[in-house]
Write a structure and sequence with these properties.
The chain contains eleven helices and 33 strands. With 520 residues, it is of the alpha+beta class. A hairpin with a 2-residue loop joins β1 and β2.
Length: 520
């Protein structure tokens, strides 16, 4: 989704005219049959209606978020604030951008003009306090052209009335999420966290610390001549060349055409380069006890790919076997090493590694890693350390009697009862039919494991901290749950980052604990 505003279509603000010492200029616009104004000095710019990202749990007057040249801006409907019915946006619709420390966009039906008012033309609102709510007004301009009164809006009160003074307190957003995730990771001692994927009908996995990120297969892969057949070519990933290797062909399983189901698992190499391993499809994120990992049988060690497997993980009482790949063996694999060398040579030959790119590639500590999922048309991210596992949604969820309405049901997850919440319901989105793309993301909140159904899980993504900023404060619930947003301007993406600890309220955590105990 292209989140850029179209600067070429932005109507210019008129140049200032010669004013008297006490004269003021106002930008005027129409909402339904009323004419309103804001001081010209407080208007940053006027733009056409941009592409919008919908925000859950926000105030009814909020239209959504937009990207204003790299800055996340909230877009608010003045029609909704004034309790007028919604109107379909058309070519006349404009967004008046007011900047009170952070930009705020106000949607208006259409622009009118820039007017100049002398002090004696501005009337105090006290004369009409008994008939309308004047809290949002600074005064009224007595028009001289027969158009009646023009109401002067107070932009600060307008924003604060909808979102509270927190709308301008972005600097108070908590920024220690990375430290919290590090503490969570330190608590895990006897478990393996695995990213599982499928190749030729067989399930494999890598330990999650060996997965840098998971990305889509690009539309075009640049082929490299005179390389192994396993090497599919190279792609550009954040200004670096990433060599792509087919695990299918490395294991001698035969080549197949790539499609939208294929995923690239990016594995970091010891020399600080990376390689992309192309899988048929990524399945789940699993958290399993280490004692479920058995050594590789001797016969398998001699087969194709056997030397790259560190163990076999037994799930579902042995009915499901997952081959856990050895990252060390992949690092030493001659095909992988040659592919990395090809990419490095290509960068040196093409001069692709500018000083800026080198700095970007060498600052992994300035990135955060998120699992990205979708609900409706929007993207959300959760810190990868907070994800216990990701599993498919079963055909039927078991509904427990007397369970709270927000609990969709329970599932049996390897012998344990897992309560499941539908995240669409939590975000007041329309229900959809169950489908194969839906997943259950499992989190532990205040010691209670809970699953949340999402429309799909798309990728594991590393995001530079420079692209992460505070979310505009739009409501108390939204502020607690979604306090940050990743603005990936070059990709035209805006990813809302969720604080997992606030997915449930305290009384809901207690209710889920009771349901789990009763069903155990």
């Amino acid at each position: 989704m292209d989140m850029q505003t179209d600067a070429a279509d932005t109507p210019p603000l008129p140049a200032s005219v010669s004013l008297g010492a006490d004269s003021r200029q106002y930008v005027t616009f129409l909402i339904d049959d009323g004419i309103f104004a804001v001081p010209l000095a407080e208007v940053q710019e006027i733009i056409r209606m941009p592409e919008i990202v919908q925000v859950p749990l926000s105030h009814a007057s909020l239209v959504g978020l937009a990207n204003l040249r790299g800055t996340v801006m909230s877009i608010t409907s003045l029609r909704r604030i004034f309790r007028y019915p919604d109107l379909v946006h058309d070519d006349a619709t404009r967004v008046v951008v007011i900047n009170q420390g952070i930009p705020v966009g106000l949607v208006v039906d259409r622009m009118s003009a820039v007017v100049t008012a002398e002090p004696d033309q501005i009337e105090n609102v006290s004369s009409i306090e008994g008939t309308i709510n004047t809290d949002l007004l600074r005064g009224m301009i007595k028009a001289t052209d027969g158009r009646g009164m023009i109401m002067i809006l107070d932009p600060i009160r307008l924003v604060d009335s909808e979102f509270g003074s927190g709308g301008r307190r972005a600097e108070q957003v908590r920024t220690n999420a990375a430290e919290v995730e590090a503490e969570r990771a330190a608590e895990i001692t006897d478990e393996l966290q695995l990213v599982s994927f499928e190749v030729a009908g067989q399930e494999y996995a890598l330990e999650i610390e060996n997965v840098q990120e998971i990305v889509q297969v690009p539309e075009r892969i640049n082929r490299v001549p005179k390389t192994d057949s396993h090497v599919l070519g190279v792609m550009t990933l954040r200004n670096r060349l990433l060599p792509l290797v087919s695990l299918r062909e490395m294991f001698g399983l035969g080549a197949v055409p790539l499609d939208e189901r294929n995923k690239i698992v990016v594995v970091p190499l010891p020399d600080h380069t990376s390689v992309g391993i192309v899988m048929d499809q990524v399945k789940e994120v699993l958290r399993v006890n280490r004692n479920l990992l058995d050594p590789v049988p001797p016969l398998m060690r001699d087969g194709d790919g056997g030397g790259d497997i560190q163990g076999i993980c037994r799930l579902n009482a042995g009915k499901r076997l997952v081959s856990v790949l050895s990252a060390e063996a992949l690092f030493e694999n001659e095909t992988v090493r040659r592919a990395a060398a090809v990419a490095e040579a290509g960068e040196q030959e093409d001069g692709a590694m500018t000083q800026e790119n080198v700095r970007g590639a060498g600052t992994l500590e300035e990135e955060e890693q998120f699992v990205v999922f979708r609900l409706a048309q929007e993207e959300y991210g959760v810190p990868i350390g907070a994800v216990q596992e990701i599993v498919r949604v079963p055909e039927h969820l078991t509904r427990l009697p007397k369970a709270p309405a927000f609990i969709k049901g329970v599932v049996n997850l390897r012998g344990s009862v897992l309560p499941v919440v539908d995240q669409r319901t939590r975000f007041d989105l329309d229900d959809i039919e169950r489908n194969d793309r839906q997943r259950i993301m499992v989190f532990t909140i205040e010691g209670v494991r809970t699953g949340f159904i999402v429309d799909s899980v798309s990728e594991v993504l590393k995001i530079p901290r420079s692209a992460i900023g505070p979310m505009p404060t739009l409501s108390d619930k939204q502020t607690d749950l979604i306090s940050r947003v990743a603005n990936l301007e070059r990709q035209g993406r805006m990813i809302m980052l969720i604080d997992v600890d606030h997915l449930l309220e305290r009384h809901e955590v207690g209710a889920i604990a009771e349901v789990t105990a009763a069903a155990a």
